[in-house]
Amino acid sequence: MDNLDYGIIGNCRSAALISKTGSIEWCCLPEFDSPSIFAKLLDEEIGGSFDINVDDSYVITQKYEQFTNILITSFKSGNDHFEIHDFMPRYRKEGNAYHAPPELIRYFKYISGAPKFSVVYDPKLEYAMGKTESFIKKDFIASLTHEVKFDTIFLYSSFDKKTIVDSGEIELKEDGYILVGYNEKLLLPTTDRAYLDLQNTKVYWLNWSNLTPTYEKFNEEISRSALTLKLLSYDKTGAVLAAATTSLPETIGEVRNWDYRFCWIRDASMVIKVVSELGHKNVARRYLQFIIDLIPDKAEKLQIMYGINKEKKLTEVTLEHLAGYKGSKPVRIGNAAYHQKQNDIYGILMDVIYEQMAKFSVDIDNGEDLWAITKGIVWIVSNNWKDADKGIWEFRTEDRHFTFSKVLCWTALDRAIKVAEMLDKKHKIEKWEPIRAEIWKDIYDNAWNEEVGAYTQSYGSKELDASVLLMESYGCVNAKDERYISTVHAIGKELNNDGLLYRYKNEDDFGLPSSSFTVCTFWYINSLFKIGERKKALEYFERLLSYSNHLGLFSEDIDFKTKRLLGNFPQAYSHLALIECAINFSKKESEDQMLESLRE
Domain-by-domain residue ranges, the chain? Predict the structure, then answer.
């Protein structure tokens, strides 16, 4: 497989990636950040997978059931036809609790003829660090490892268990199922129960999607992206993951391979802002509770990222025994970036807090907690905004005065003042306004480079950086501001490579990137749209959409030459930015139609 041609299924507890031929090649149980049970994605030889094999006469196609996260893979050879409906159960129980067990179900739907297939069931527990053995028991197949650490998973099926273990041929004559779960089931599964789980899960996703507004243009892309972002939210704590994978490289054969199964305050806050704009306020409410729970001490600084269960220490370890995706080593779990200092996270979080309090001020929970956090953020930013930091791209070398970090420090004060205005805290407004003005003047005087004709990556540099495009999005400058227009044009000229953008071109800790960070191209498209170059923006957007995989999913990066997807997958950053762009184009079309009808 040369591209990341995978679908994702999940239940807001864990997730699995399934290839376009129906092979499960990545899955961690019981939670997103648990050790893998299938990791062929990271080592084709020893990683482990759950394959469905058919002969060469079968045509295999794949799609999502519309407005759901149920993945349907169709196998057809003449009249012989069956489908696999892959999903992780999620639906509401009595009260407000959800049924979301650590398991996946493969529902085999008989369509016609006498279709035949075989199963290659090859789990490799604990990141394939030791030997995994499978044993046929009365009610299930148990797979276990104990060399490095003891762990087990259980397989239940309507098909003969020995045939599954031996990869024997199965002729499908009626619907059947295979359930792989982390826990032994107390109630024995049946095909009828699997079907009921499928229908209940379908209803859950349809109801969730029904809350998302319908748009004039790009409605399918917005819906799929929203469903993907929901899949990356961890229901138990409210955390939002950057991606569902670890160590998928930004460039094949290089070492930019990181574990993204954590909650970055920046990425998560941006996701929450977009998802709540789509009407899904419960996701936002849970995330804000996650933040409140993380800050028991008013003076405690935020880390840039946390574990999904609020862990503060994310020790980075290399798994030397795994070959890596397409041979790209090292494979890492944990992420050493957690101790970095990045001043931008406060502004991004403060922006979300303001948005939520403005939208849901009447029914917002924890208003007093959020006001306390607001005051704490202002105190930290006021005392630290003049300091250098690592910046949004997490340079592992020296600290710099990054323009984006300064803009987000300004944003923190600006949104805090807006919250204070909502709460009629006049004393705080008077105290904070001069600090906001001082930060803005500092940016205006020091981030602009007259010779380059743009706001640059950091103070005193000539280097351009795509993150600076967000100055307008956060309200630091106006889209009609000549400096901003000039910056957009300069970035387009310098960082554009065949319709895709570099984050920056100055060499970082690992040299010049050879792939585009997908979100940067979306930012550029949005900036073109904002400064009035809408036709050009739409052309770029439609071209970028064509680089998604067969299911409309995006990873972190796109290779400049081949346009193949690279980096961790699916990437929350990419999908939230897609939604922002798509909504802008859709709203503009609606406005144009309204103006046209008024003229008639």
Answer: 6-210, 219-599
The rounded distance, in Å, linking the Cα atoms of 36 and 42 is 10
**For residue 585, which of 62, 58, 199, 219 has the smallest C-alpha distance?**
219
DSSP letter at 403? H
Find the Cα–Cα–Cα–Cα dihedral 361, 366, 369, 375, rounded to 10°.
-10
pLDDT bracket for residue 69 (50, 70, 90): very high
CA distance 374 to 5: 42
Q: Could you read off the pLDDT of 389-398 as tens digits, one per residue?
A: 888 887 767 7
> In the chain, count of helices (H) and strands (E)?
15, 28
The whole-angstrom separation of Cα 574 and Cα 553 is 9
pLDDT at residue 595 is higher than 60: no
Kindly give, in sequence order, each residue whose CB lies less than 8 Å from that of residue 131, ignoring residues fewer than 6 positions away. Answer: 145, 147
- Who contacts 109 (Cβ-Cβ below 8 Å, separation ≥6)? 82, 83, 84, 85, 175
| DSSP at 552 | S
**What is residue 369's predicted lDDT score, i.e. its pLDDT?**
87
Dig out the tokens for 326 from the structure.
């397409």
pLDDT digits (tens, 9 = 90+) for 287-335: 988 988 888 676 677 898 999 999 999 999 999 999 999 999 999 999 9
Fold of the domain spanning 6-210: Beta-galactosidase; Chain A, domain 5 (2.70.98)
- Partnered with residue 92 across adjacent β-strands are 98
Kindly report the pTM of this predicted structure.
0.95
CB 260 within 8 A of CB 246: yes
**Residue 277: closest CA among 218, 359, 350:** 359
Among residues 123, 116, 109, the alpha carbon closest in space to that of 40 is found at 123
CATH code for the structural domain at 219-599: 1.50.10.10
